[in-house]
Amino acid sequence: QVQLVESGGGLVQPGGSLRLSCAASGVTFSGAAMSWYRQAPGKERELVAAISGDGGSTDYADSVKGRFTISRDNAKNTVYLQMNSLKSEDTAVYYCWRWPYWGRGTQVTVSS
Predict the structure, then answer these.
(1) Three state DSSP letters for 15-63
(2) What's the chain's Rg over C-alpha atoms?
(3) Cβ distance 23 to 5 under 8 Å?
(4) How many CB atoms lie within 10 A of CB 24?
(5) Are 6 and 96 in contact (CB under 8 A)?
(6) How far apart (Å, rounded) are the C-alpha atoms in residues 69 and 77?
(7) CB 3.0 to 4.6 Å from 53: which of 31, 43, 46, 92, for a disulfide?
(8) Residue 99: per-residue pLDDT
């Protein structure tokens, strides 16, 4: 059974930080590209960050460049999203994706 389980979401003030984790099981992890997406209320799901199978290549949405960092630990079958300098517009449900599977998401709310 394939599982992608996100964790680490929560409520944070503007300017704060959160670290999301996505633990994968039941699927080949090492060597597979992984991505984080997000979906805000009333908006389409959008790509936030992606990382290659060996972690050597990353890509980010323009809106998060310089603030978010994606990384992975292939020994732990886990991908991370470090989010710094959070803004209210970062509020969304964040999803982990490993083709063709989605996690259930974790809510991130940035509010004072």
Answers:
(1) CCCEEEEEEEECCCCCCCCEEEEEECCCCCCEEEEEECCCCCCEEECCC
(2) 13
(3) yes
(4) 23
(5) yes
(6) 17
(7) 31
(8) 93
The two three-digit tokens of residue 76, written as one number: 């732990």
Residue 69 pairs in a beta bridge with: 82
User: Could you report the average pLDDT of every consecutive run of 10 residues in the chain (112 residues)?
Assistant: 95 98 92 96 97 96 98 96 98 97 97 96
Measured distance CA(18)–CA(81) in Å, rounded: 8
100: left (phi over 0), alpha (psi -120 to 50) or beta: alpha
Please name the residues in contact with 77: beta carbons below 8 A apart, sequence gap of 6 or more. 23, 24, 25, 29, 30
Output the pLDDT for position 28.
87
Task: Check residue 75 and give left, alpha or beta (phi > 0: left; psi -120 to 50: alpha).
Answer: alpha
Q: Which two tokens stand for residue 64?
A: 């998060």
